[in-house]
Specification:
single chain, 346 residues, alpha+beta, Helix Hairpins, Heat Shock Protein 90, two-stranded antiparallel sheet, 8 helices, 12% strand, elongated, binds adenosine-5'-diphosphate, binds magnesium ion
Length: 346
């Protein structure tokens, strides 16, 4: 039963009034009217005093704590007002402390739940991604063992296919390792000074064959001979550019397709833009392509099939350089990826 403050105050003041009246009656020659008056005065005054103390200093605050816990159960609570600048009573400050504590705990619980879902999804994604190349390689090898090895031509074809699947597996594991290194902070970004065009050229050299197979062009808009110096981790920026240019080739149109790398020198930074005239990305997909393993459904085909980790890695690397990677695109009209790096103007 919830004890009402009025009831408590009445019982206590009754005790006080009875004691006062008894004391008065002990005094010789006290008329009974005086005893009754003393009883009534002490009853009302102590009732009022106790009632206000209990109601306003204790019960009101206890009630607040109580409602707070009720709200806690419904995950809906707001921080109580600070008491209009007056010093808080101990119970009021206790109320504030509990609210603060509850807010923190609630946030922790929500974060833990989010992490748990994220972890589950991540494991499901990894298993799925690992399964595909392993199954494929397994299939080719067992077919060979079951007799296909006797035909030299088929043997070579199947072994090449198995090797390709295992290369894909290796690529996936390397990507996962890079991602975890960056996330754990193990891979600290170096601060090196280098010419961004030198990296662009190295990326183009590596991907030239791939582009010419699709009859696509790789272009850089270098119109000055002097180097454009940036301060960043050279190896990681190479990784970012390689993935962006490779994506431009993979998701670009054959013949007439191009990937153009532009570099714009600004006051204290350099903006790098990687542009293509390929399939483009819808605005819904643009919001998700930087997530791990996210691939636009149509591009899940085997021949294009990367790990879906490239852009996740690229965005983590750029963020570790205290910058951000952006995409702008219209379906069918190509895409532009851009990021900025610190530089030295020369
Ligand atoms: N230049 C681009 N044009 C069109 N789509 C792109 C482009 N770059 C990335 N995407 C889309 O974003 C997805 C994620 O890219 P990424 O993380 O590099 O993975 P992957 O290259 O392994 O598929 C790709 O699967 C593709 O659907
Ligand atoms: Mg990629």
């Amino acid at each position: 039963m919830f004890i009402q403050p009025r009831f408590i105050s009445f019982v206590l003041s009754l005790f006080i009034a009875i004691s006062t009246a008894s004391f008065c009656s002990l005094v010789p020659n006290t008329p009974s009217t005086s005893v009754a008056t003393a009883f009534l005065i002490s009853l009302t005054s102590s009732f009022l005093l106790i009632y206000f103390t209990v109601e306003y200093l204790i019960f009101k605050e206890l009630f607040k704590i109580n409602t707070l816990f009720e709200k806690l159960k419904k995950k809906d609570f707001k921080f109580p007002k600070s008491g209009n600048g007056f010093k808080l009573s101990p119970i009021e400050s206790l109320n504030r402390e509990i609210t603060l504590f509850a807010q923190l705990k609630q946030k922790e619980i929500e974060d833990l739940k989010k992490n748990e879902t994220y972890r589950k999804e991540f494991i499901a994604d990894i298993s799925h991604e690992l399964k595909t190349p392993i199954f494929a390689a397994q299939g080719y090898i067992y077919t060979l063992l079951d007799g296909a090895k006797d035909d030299a031509e088929v043997s070579e074809k199947f072994l090449k296919k198995a090797a390709k699947s295992l290369d894909g597996l290796d690529e996936l594991v390397q990507d996962l390792l890079t991602l975890s290194e960056i996330e754990m902070g193990a891979a600290k970004m170096k601060k090196e000074q280098f010419d961004i065009f030198q990296i662009v050229n190295e990326v183009f050299d590596q991907l030239d064959k791939k582009a010419s197979k699709k009859k696509m062009k790789l272009i850089s808009d270098r119109n000055v001979e002097k180097p454009i110096l940036v301060i960043a981790d050279q190896k990681r920026i190479f990784q970012v550019l390689r993935n962006l240019v490779e994506n431009g080739i993979k998701y670009g149109f054959d013949e007439g397709g191009y990937v153009l790398v532009k570099v714009r020198q600004e006051l204290d930074c350099v903006e790098v833009l990687v542009e293509d005239n390929g399939t483009g990305i819808t605005s819904d997909d643009q919001k998700r392509i930087f997530e791990r393993f996210y691939r636009v459904e149509k591009s899940r085909s085997k021949d294009k099939g990367g790990s879906g980790l490239g852009l996740a890695i690229a965005s983590q690397i750029i963020e570790a350089h205290k910058s951000k990677i952006f995409v702008s695109s219209k379906p069918g009209k190509g895409a532009v990826f851009s990021f900025k790096l610190f530089s030295i103007k020369n």
